[in-house]
Each structure stands twice: as C-alpha cells, then as structure tokens.
Amino acid sequence: MVKQKTLKGLGARYGIKHRKLYSKIHFQLKEKRTCPECGSQQFNRDAVGIWSCKKCSFKVAGTAYDVKL
C-alpha cells in the first residue's frame, strides 16, 4: 500500500476532489528541480510560467506549475 501525501490546513472543506487536486498541484510546485544550465538545485518559480536559477541567473518560460524543457 502506497501512502499518499496529504496537505494539512484545508480540513473538511471544499470537497475531496478539490482537496486532492490542490494537494497534487501544491506538491508538484514545491518539488526540487535542477537547473538545466548549471545543474544546481536552486531552480525555482518566480511567477506564473517564469522559472529561474538563483545561482546562474538562467531564466526560462514554462508552464504554470512545472517547467517543460
């Protein structure tokens, strides 16, 4: 049996479908990514669709919650 990650703080509100979708997107957004340019782990989202590396200042446009290169 695989244990699923759950997101605390929503309680019993909004319905199970919306809570599962929100937690899936939240964990996808917060996962660690490597920079395609320098390989460091400091590759984060600046705004919706804008991803940048804090180490080498590499910027790329991607999707809202994940970067597809």
From TrEMBL:
Family matches, as SUPFAM superfamilies: Zn-binding ribosomal proteins (SSF57829)
UniProt entry keywords in alphabetical sequence: Ribonucleoprotein, Ribosomal protein, RNA-binding
GO annotation, cellular component aspect: ribonucleoprotein complex; ribosome
UniProt GO MF annotations: RNA binding; structural constituent of ribosome
GO BP: any one term: translation
Domain of life from the UniProt record: Archaea
Keyword field contains Ribonucleoprotein: yes
Pfam families with a match to the protein in the record: Ribosomal_L37ae
Keyword Methyltransferase belongs to the record: no
Family: Belongs to the eukaryotic ribosomal protein eL43 family.
PANTHER family, per the entry: 60S RIBOSOMAL PROTEIN L37A, LARGE RIBOSOMAL SUBUNIT PROTEIN EL43
Listed name of the protein: 50S ribosomal protein L37Ae
